[in-house]
Amino acid sequence: MSLIGFKARARQHQIRFREEVLKAGKGDQEYHLSDADARRGLIFFEGCNILKAARVRYPNFEHNKACYGNMLRSEHIPFNFFVPLANDLKYARDVINKFMCGVIGEIILIKIEHAPDPEKALKDRTSFDVYVEFNHIDGTRGILGIEVKYTEGAYELKENSKEAREVQDPNSIYNRLTRKHNLFKEEYLDQLPTDEFRQAWRNLLLGVSMTRMDKEDSIFEHFTSIILYPEGNDHFRNLVPVISKMLSYGREELFMGITYEEFISVARDLANYPEYLRWLQYLEDRYIVKN
Q1: Does the model's pTM come out above 0.90?
Q2: Is the model's pLDDT at 120 over the cut of 70?
Q3: Which residue ranges make up each domain of the chain?
Q4: Tens of pLDDT along 203-233?
Q5: How large a percentage of the chain has pLDDT more than 90?
Q6: What is the pLDDT of residue 1?
Q7: Which of 58, 98, 229, 240 lies most in the core, judged by the most C-beta atoms within 10 Å?
């Protein structure tokens, strides 16, 4: 199934969910909530204080209409997946450790939509959809930067934009960091600025720029960039193994992909409370396109 096919099926899935489960009105598009229902927070799971967390980050509908109203885009999804983990850091550790080979001793915090201090990172506004700080079992500190996708694919570079100039400039911070730390194999360097790879490249650089790999005074020793996506999204299903192949030897821990299906399965196996099971069933019903 192509990304176009997946997006069309996800569109119908979200329309049905809006009509049959949420029983909510439609906005400008059938997969948008009406303004009234968006303001009520119906795009979010009703439990686990998810709406409260979203309103702290975006105090009202006008601050981020896509997050509150567009059911087909991913802006709201980090809240639905990760606020319950942020509320229970031990459970979060147990879930995430299943993907991190048990290296996390303790999760310190989880933030949604976190932009690090530009002067301590890439000197721009690159941000993490989900930011996780943890204590490593070796006694050091680490970071996870999670990019959450749903129906999105590659995104086009805006002509003459600051980003366009910098990703093509061999002396920009992006290209200097990549060469300085030998992050990718030489034969793949010219592909990194392309629409296919650019965002994953920048997300990885953002984390690297915050660690001791790049800054000796950093408190962070470890970093992994994670893409969370539904299995049906062909773009990311194909992209993840390619990026892993592009990384230089010894840099494998810097990147991984996790599917929604894998996340839900692991989280369900470790869930101890009925509320968690209800939340995970919601995630499955809401985002997994089965036909």
Answers
A1: yes
A2: no
A3: 3-80+273-287, 87-263
A4: 999 999 999 999 899 999 999 999 999 999 9
A5: 81
A6: 46
A7: 229
Given a cut of 70, whether residue 117 has pLDDT beyond it is no
Measured between alpha carbons, how far is 35 from 20 in angstroms, rounded to an integer? 18
Residue 251's closest CA among 173, 149, 177? Answer: 177
Using the Cα atoms of residue 87, residue 88, residue 89 and residue 91 in order, give the sign of their dihedral: negative
Locate tokens 């109203």: which residue? 69
Give the tens place of pLDDT for each residue, 53-85.
999 999 988 888 999 999 999 999 999 999 999
Q: Which of 141, 81, 79 is nearest to 266 (CA)?
A: 81
Convert 105-137 into a string of H (helix), E (strand) and C (coil). EEEEEEEEEECCCHHHCCCCCCCEEEEEEEEEC
Contact assessment for residue 193 and residue 225, using Cβ atoms and an 8 Å cutoff = no
Residue 55: in which H helix or E strand, if any?
Answer: helix 50-57
* Tokens describing residue 12: 């119908």
Task: Tell me the three state secondary structure of residue 217.
Answer: coil
How far is C-alpha 158 from the geometric centre of its chain's CA atoms? Answer: 22
Parallel, antiparallel or unpaired: strands 255-259 and 141-148: unpaired
Q: What are phi and psi of 173, to 5 degrees?
A: -60, -35
Q: What is the SS3 assignment for 223?
A: strand
Bridge partner list, 222: 142
- Output the average pLDDT for the chain: 92
